[in-house]
Design a protein that fits this description.
Pfam families: Pollen_Ole_e_1. This is DUF4198 domain-containing protein. The protein has 112 residues and is mainly beta. It has one domain: Immunoglobulin-like. 12% of the residues lie in helices and 43% in strands. The chain is built from one helix and ten strands, in the order H-E-E-E-E-E-E-E-E-E-E. The strands form two sheets. Strands 1, 2, 5, 9 and 10 form a five-stranded mixed sheet that branches. Strands 3, 4, 6, 7 and 8 form a five-stranded antiparallel sheet that branches. The termini are far apart.
Length: 112
C-alpha cells in the first residue's frame, strides 16, 4: 500500500481548524458591583446575520461567566437580564483563552 503522508497531514490540520475557539471568560459589573444572573450571548460573526453561530451563558453570584465560542475572529457580545438586552459590542475571539471583563450601564450596554 502506498500511503500519502501529505494527505493525512492536510486532513488533520483541516480538522483542527474547525475546532472551538479557546474559552471566553470574565465578569460583568453594573455600578462596580457584580451582576449576578445576567445572560451573556456571543454571536459570530454578529447578531441578525445569516448564517451565524450563537452561544450563551449566565453569570454566577460573583458576575462571572465562561463559555466556548464556536469560531475565532470578530464576534459580537451582548448582556441581558430577563427580557431586556443591551446593545451588542465587538469582541475578538482567538484559539487561546481570553478574559473579558465587562462594565455595563443601567441599559446593560457598554458605556461609550
Amino acid at each position: 500500500m502506498n500511503a500519502k503522508p501529505g494527505f493525512c497531514l492536510t486532513i488533520l490540520v483541516g480538522i483542527s481548524c474547525v475546532a472551538l475557539a479557546g474559552p471566553l471568560y470574565g465578569t460583568v459589573r453594573l455600578n462596580n458591583a457584580p451582576l449576578a444572573g445576567a445572560d451573556i450571548e456571543v454571536a459570530c460573526p454578529q447578531f441578525n446575520t445569516s448564517p451565524h453561530s450563537e452561544v450563551s451563558a449566565t453569570t454566577d453570584a460573583q458576575g462571572s461567566f465562561t463559555l466556548r465560542v464556536p469560531s475565532v475572529g470578530r464576534c459580537q457580545m451582548r448582556v441581558g437580564k430577563g427580557p431586556h438586552k443591551g446593545n451588542p459590542f465587538a469582541v475578538f475571539v482567538s484559539n487561546n483563552a481570553l478574559r473579558f471583563d465587562v462594565q455595563v450601564d443601567a441599559d446593560l450596554s457598554r458605556p461609550q
